[in-house]
Amino acid sequence: MKLHQKDSVVVALAPIPKNTTLMVDQQTVTTLVNVPQGHKIAVFDLKKDTNVIKYGYPIGHVTQDIQAGEWLHTHNMKTNLSGELAYHYQPDVHPVDYPLENRTFQGYIRKNGKVGIRNDLLIVPTVGCVNGVAELIVKKFKAKHPDLGNFDHVTILKHPYGCSQLGKDHQQTRTVLADAVHHPNAGGVLVFGLGCENNTVSEFKKVLGHYEEERVKFLGGTRGDR
């Protein structure tokens, strides 16, 4: 990757073997040695003491003559800094104006006006005790609907909470789960409870507030808890 048009180096996004030919600015550069991931490669020849340019600015200088395709690191580079220097922050800012009209993306508009970028089926256990049962439900659903129907993914929001919690700790669990239920990426939600937990389905509904009945369904718990 070349980070700036003025750069004299590119960065290896993955380990690059020796004799690999790279295309940089419509010219080829062949690596002379194996280059580790995240390290620099010279894109043209550099004479000794020449500055190395990265991000458009000098980051040091070479301590020997360098050929294009050579690995640049501490063995052949040195910082330009010495002693204590006064630093002045001078950002080179170029504002970019993006037109706001006619800007669209593929998404899913929910009835409350929110928009999701996915259409997932979300299983939300009210308590960690039912995580295993939720997995069985998903397994049977996928066996019956291998194409997942209209959904992109089926996801269980597994967690170890919802039972024997008190105060703010318990409230935080219910708030996070409620936010997941209301998330616009969830095209369908199954809230799944046991019945003996602190965070019963009926108590969770109080935190959940208004919800779309055709999108959010509830399962589990005792008869009086539903």
TrEMBL record:
Record domain SAF: where: 7-78
Organism of derivation: Enterococcus ratti
Q: Which InterPro entries match?
A: GD_AH_second, SAF, SAF_UxaA/GarD, UxaA_altronate/galactarate_dh
Q: Which Pfam families match?
A: GD_AH_second (PF04295), SAF (PF08666)
Q: Any idea what this protein is called?
A: Altronate hydrolase
Q: Which PANTHER family match?
A: ALTRONATE DEHYDRATASE, ALTRONATE/GALACTARATE DEHYDRATASE
Keyword annotations from UniProtKB, A to Z: Hydrolase, Lyase
Q: Which CDD domains match?
A: SAF_AH_GD (cd11613)
